[in-house]
Amino acid sequence: CALYQAFEQLKKKLAAEGLFERHQRPLPLFPKRVAVVTSPSGAVIQDIITTVARRYPILQLTLFPAIVQGDQAADSIVKQLNRIKTMSGFDAVIIGRGGGSIEDLWPFNEEKVARALAEMPMPIVSSVGHETDTTIADFVADRRAATPTAAAEIVTPVTLVDALNRISEDQVRLVNAMHNRLKNAATRLQRSAQSVVLTQPDRLYDQYVQRVDQLRQRLQQSINSQLRENKHRLAMATAQLDGRQLLVKVANLQRQQVDDRRRLDRAMIALVTAKHQAVANAALGLDHLSPLKILGRGFAFVTDDAGKMLKTTADYQVDAAIHIHVADGQIGARVTTKEKKHG
Questions:
Q1: In what order do the strands lie in the sheet with 92-97?
Q2: Of 80, 92, 125, 201, which one has the fewest beta carbons inside 10 Å?
Q3: pLDDT band per the 50, 70, 90 thresholds, residue 74
Q4: Rounded distance, CA 158 to CA 28, Å?
């Protein structure tokens, strides 16, 4: 029929968007508040209340009454889901209704309901219809329950009795663990009290006393050796300070001084002679390089009126005054022509 076709089309569309592939959010072990979106007059809310009262009576259930059948049902369900989202503080949401035909369950196949469920910040448990009935809400929800009773059991994974028993067992284990720790600590204390450190503390210092004796012996040996060395050096110094030895040393030093003076005089004379010869050679070299010597061999150089030396044809200007410098003076002249050598 048309409803089944519409169901398959919407299912395919939402699956393509990844709305059914979200990771299943875990439900808390000890929930405090759970919201229920269903009809206030149906058997669903009664089954949930009865199951919670039996399993976990401290859980606070809050009913958000909604129309679950007919044309206004989808908008009513979305409105209540939005109320839950704005109020926050809920650990989970149960949404559902009793069994019926596909027409009766159709509000839970509406796209607006599916998207509202997908936007809820807490886990959703869907309990729509009987076990064989499947709606879009079942695919979007984090968990699907076959019946309202099963939905209540899902949101209360641990019963209050189980929780109290677990606490009692943990308490027993904790007490036993503390007793064992205290027993072990007492055993360690007794063992420590009987140890050599506390019963015979003098034995702790035996090895240190022995070490001190060894160091004292080594120190005494070192002092004796140093004293013998100092006595030997004192004897040598005393022998060197003998008067006759001093006279011999003074005479030797005087002879050495005279010899050193002679060698120094000879070295100074040789050094001065070498320096004079070096200066004479340098002066002779400079004389050979002197411009006057070069001019004396017939060479000349030319300057302009400003005294600038003219070296190339580019420095000369036609009809400009020039000065030719020779060995015994200079000659004034004027440039008539200039020709640059090629090749």
A1: 60-65, 33-38, 92-97, 124-128, 143-144
A2: 201
A3: very high
A4: 10
Tokens linked to 71 = 């044309």
Q: What's the CA gap between 14 and 140, in Å, rounded? A: 9
Alpha carbon separation from 127 to 28, 217, 268 (Å, rounded):
19, 96, 125
Cα distance between residue 328 and residue 66, in whole Å: 135
Type of residue numbered 127: S
Which two tokens mark 325?
A: 């410098």
Please provide the size of the chain in residues.
343
Per residue in 271-280, pLDDT tens? 888 888 888 8
Which pair of tokens denotes residue 204?
């702790």
Residue pLDDT, tens place only, 152-167: 999 998 877 776 666 6
3-state SS track over the chain: CHHHHHHHHHHHHHHHCCCCCCCCCCCCCCCCEEEEEECCCCHHHHHHHHHHHHHCCCCEEEEEECCCCCCCHHHHHHHHHHHHHHHCCCCEEEEEECCCCCCCCHHHHCHHHHHHHHCCCCCEEEEECCCCCCCHHHHHCCEECCCHHHHHHHHCCCCHHHHHHHHHHHHHHHHHHHHHHHHHHHHHHHHHHCCHHHHCHHHHHHHHHHHHHHHHHHHHHHHHHHHHHHHHHHHHHHHHCCHHHHHHHHHHHHHHHHHHHHHHHHHHHHHHHHHHHHHHHHHHHHHHHCHHHHHHCCCCEEEECCCCECCCHHHCCCCCEEEEEECCEEEEEECCCCCCCCC
- pLDDT bin (cut points 50, 70, 90) of residue 242 is low
